[in-house]
Amino acid sequence: MTIDDNPIAAFVPRLVDVDGVSKTVYTAGSGPAVVVMPEMPGISPDVLRLARWIRDAGFTVYLPSLFGVDGAYPTADDGAEVVRRACVSAEFRAFAGGGTSPVTRWLRGLARLAHDECGGPGVGALGLCFTGNFALTMTLEPAVVAPVVNHPSLPLDDPAGLELSEEDAAAIRDRIRRDGLTVLAYRFDNDRWCTGRRFAAYRALLGDAFDGRVLAGDAANPTPPPFFRDVVQTPHSIVTAHFVDQEGHPTRAARDEILAFLGARLHAPATE
């Protein structure tokens, strides 16, 4: 069986304990650490392809299993069931008014561990869809210096919401300003799960530190996997399910921009 047949075989699974909670984390590569969080409904072959690109750009990838079946494309029905379970899980805050998802505390602990193991100026955090905003929340961990927020979909019922408590939002804003961080973010212009109102809310919180980039929806891959075709039903996942691997294509350009962003912040020497 080749990597193409079983793409998760390129990664080493390990059980990581943070504050008494254990989760499987898939790792690969060498160099500074990047925590890649899966999109709904799980660690699909498309998410693994993105993780391999990050690995090949000179990073150690930490890919935690947060929901779904690792390494598979689920059916539309199975994927919808994963969403339903996540929405009622105590780890996530899928709807407005819930504040910050508790799982982000575990993810910040993973970032600390990754920095201890890999060294370098800091850690990258890349969120996708359901986990998109988690990359921003992870900046509450000082080791995280390169947050990438891809098409954040939470809260599901508030297009202008940020899936943050007021206290965490203020702390994130202060940390971003204090350390001069930039938050790189992407969405399609006609994405109904991540609207322009949500990006406007990020900019209101972060000001010029929020680098929100918008791609034309007609650039999206027109034949995504079943969950995205039948459940998501809109251009959404720029560097995974709706990615088009063609020279000069806007989604490939976005992929390359993300890799360059990570490289500029994580491959640079640490300042005194």
UniProtKB/TrEMBL annotation:
Residues 30-154 form the Dienelactone hydrolase domain. InterPro entries: AB_hydrolase_fold (IPR029058), Dienelactn_hydro (IPR002925). Gene3D superfamilies: alpha/beta hydrolase. GO terms for molecular function: hydrolase activity. It comes from the Bacteria. This is Dienelactone hydrolase domain-containing protein. It comes from Nocardia cerradoensis.
